[in-house]
Structure formats: C-alpha cells, structure tokens
Amino acid sequence: MNSAAPAVRGTRVGPGALVAAAFIGPGTVTTCTLAGVQAGTALLWALAFATIGTIVLQEMAARLGTITGQGLGDALRRRVKTPLARLTMLALVVFAIGFGNAAYQTGNLLGAALGLDIAFSGGPRLWAAAVATGATALLMTGRYRVIERVLVALVIFMSLLFVITALAVSPAWSEIARDLVQPRLPEGTALVALGLIGTTIVPYNLFLHASAAAERFTDGDSATRLRHARWDLVVAIGLGGVVSMAIVVTAAAAQANALSSGAAIDSAGSMATQLSPLLGRWATIVFAVGLFAAGMTSAITAPMAAAWAVAGAMNWPRDLRDWRLRAVWGTVIAVGVGVSISGVQPLPAILAAQAANALLLPIVAGFLLFAMNDRVALGAATNNRIANVAGAAIVLITLALGTRALWSVISRVWPR
Question: DSSP labels for 319-372?
C-alpha cells in the first residue's frame, strides 16, 4: 500500500510511513497468518530479520535521495555509462519492478476479494474483477485520494486491533523472545519464511523511498535532512514490524485454541478468529472490512508505484497521464486480474506473490549497493564498510533462503 514520491510533497507524512504501509497489505495479513498457523511463533526470527533488513536497505535509499536529490533509477542510469551495461541494467530494473508489482497486484486483488467474499459471498474471482475495475477507474480519473485516506484509516484500525489482541491472548513471552533470535525452519515452512521477507522488504520501495526522500527532506543542511530521514524510517518501519509480529502471535494463539476444540484455521473466513478474543462475534466483519481496505488501497497504489519506478529508470516524465506510464500501470492491473480470475487458490497465490518478490530482492538490493558506492555523487555519505557488509549479508541470506524454498518446491513436484 504505497504511494509515490510526488504524493509526499507538501505533506507531513514521511517516506518511512509510506514504506511501512506496505507491510499491512493483504499479503502481510495472509502470510503472517499462515506463518502463525503452520509454525506458531517459530518464524518470528524471519520477521525480525526482515524488519532490520528493511531499515538497513531503506536507510540507504533515503540517504541516496536526501543527499543527491535523485531517485534510485536516476542514480543507476547516471552511473552506468556503457550502452550495453545500461541496457542490461534497465532491463533488469524494469523486469524486477514490473514482475514484482504484477505479483503484488495479484495478492492485492485477491486480498480485497477475500474480504468482500467473507462479507457478502459470491466468490473471489467475481470480486477480484470488481476491485480491478474500481482501481482502474480511480486511476484514470485521479480521484482516489479521499477514498485512499479512508481505506488507510481502516487498515490502521485493524492493525491496532491485532496488536491489542496479541497482548490480550497472553502469549508465552519467553518463547517469543527465543523465536525472535533463534533461526529455525520447521518442516515445510521455507516458502512461508521467504514470504515473510518478501512482504516486508519490498523491492520497489527502494526506488520509491529514494525519490520520496528527495522530495520530502529539503530543508536545512544535509546532516539535518539525513537525521530527519533516518528517524522517520526507523520509527515507521519498526512499528510496521511490530504489527506483522502481532498478526503471527494472534494466528498462533487462534490455531492452538481451534485445534483444542477440534477445528483449525484452514480458510480465509476462519482467519478472522484471530480477533475473536477482542471482538467476539464482530471479528469476522471487522476482519473482512480491514482485509478489503488493505487490498483495495494496495490495488490502487501498487500499479501507480510501478509506473513511477519504471519512469525513473527509463527517464520518462512522472506524469500518470503519459501514455507510457498508463501502459505500465495498466499492464500491472491486467496481469493481476488475469491471474486472480484464473481459478488459483487465493491463500497460496498470495503467499507465492510474497515469495516471488523476495526472490527478486537480491537483484534490486544489488543495484542499490552499486549506487550507494558512487563517491562522486554521494561524497561523505557513500556507504562505509559496515553498510556494505550489512547489505551484502541481507542479499546472501535472502538468496540462501530462496534457494532452499525453491529446492523444497522442486522436491515436492519432482520427488526422487
């Protein structure tokens, strides 16, 4: 649920809040719920890693935008001089952002559709098509800001409910503390762990954060601007990570209670039982409204974000009325709705979308590290050795986990 750089101008909302908003989309609610259902709190370490990794990488993006006034796409285009290398870089950027956002859009549409299906029935395919139509109409007219603010307020309300419920269910805090720092992968959970990373460290946010920081932090000297940018992102992203962890904790508690009574959380509708300790019979309605709001907001802003990210990489004007940008966001919506109405199962599809973005993360993070070592553009703000090691570690850990997840999937499809 992201916005783009131009939306930040003239507002008090920092880019960190825009990045954190991506956490609480339908993909996060679904993936964190599946993590809690399948592994209890055992995968909290993946969320802790993802939250820290997001802060590390987004700090680099914010530093790039704040110091140079450039977006990541602009920085890459200016640093890569060889025509063939520049063409290869641009192709990878467009692929990573375009494919990643198309995958996210599938999850957004299915998430909003699940919320409507829980509330009114009719089937996810029907509602996914309806949500896509609404998102397209709003993007064409540009009259989506008021609706977006209402939807964001509903998502924030649902997020607060998850945090309060997590505290109300009296979890075993000693186990939570252990699972936050002790990496382990229970059998069959590698793809879920990768999904947790993919729903937290969002590749296109690295492009958007740099552009948004360049627009937002313009007052004072470079040190003051950078201090404000860092404070903004640490607080906002940290809170986003707390909400994600709260969803895992509530899902684990709800599954334990369901199993003790001979039931289980095995469908979108039963996911709402997480909020039962706090809301009772209203849990299903509130959950459905929140899931729809999260999905609908993201269904509007994710295609828009893809168009702006690709525009930066290709040196196009950042005007959504430009036919090239319309082609980008229109393609993202078209792919998303095509997959959504194809008959795929919503919950596995949403998880797969998050995992796909995690697999694309090393490409985009690698580009960011490349840009952050440009001493001509960044001067003293160039990455130091610690930042480079931290960034490389995030890339390598994600690669290792992605390789394990892929091997797990391949082993199931083609067993020995």
Answer: -TTSHHHHHHHHHHHHHHHHHHTTT--HHHHHHHHHHHHHHHHHHHHHHHHHHT
Pairwise CA distance, residues 287 & 103, whole Å: 23
| CB within 8 Å of 264: residues ≥ 6 apart | 37, 255, 258, 270
pTM: 0.84
Task: Quote the CA–CA distance of 255 and 266 in Å, as a whole number.
Answer: 9
Q: Is 122 left (phi over 0), alpha (psi -120 to 50) or beta?
A: left
Q: What is the pLDDT of residues 199-243, one digit of tens each?
A: 888 887 888 788 778 877 877 788 888 888 899 899 889 988 999
d(CA 223, CA 66): 10
Q: Do residues 298 and 111 touch, judged by C-beta distance below 8 A?
A: yes
Distances (CA, A) of 235 to 19, 49, 95, 137, 255: 11, 16, 31, 34, 31
The DSSP result for 170-238, as a single string, is ---HHHHHHHHHS----TT-HHHHHHHHHTTS-HHHHHHHHHHHHHH--SS-HHHHHHHHHHHHHHHHH
CA angle 193, 198, 201 (to 5 degrees): 120
> Rounded CA gap, 49 and 40, in Å?
17
| Residue 205 to residue 187: CA distance in whole angstroms | 31
As a whole number of angstroms, the distance between CA 17 and CA 165 comes to 23
Instruction: Please give the DSSP secondary-structure letter assigned to residue 123.
Output: -
What is the crossing angle of helices 26-39 and 44-68, to 10°?
150
Query: Model confidence over 136-180: pLDDT tens digits?
Result: 887 887 666 666 677 777 778 888 888 898 888 888 899 999 999
Three-class secondary structure of residue 179 per DSSP = helix
> In terms of residues, how long is the chain?
416
DSSP reduced 3-state for 259: helix
Residue 308's nearest CA partner among 236, 389, 227, 208 is 208
Phi, psi of 211 (to 5 degrees): -65, -40
Enter the DSSP assignment of 413: H
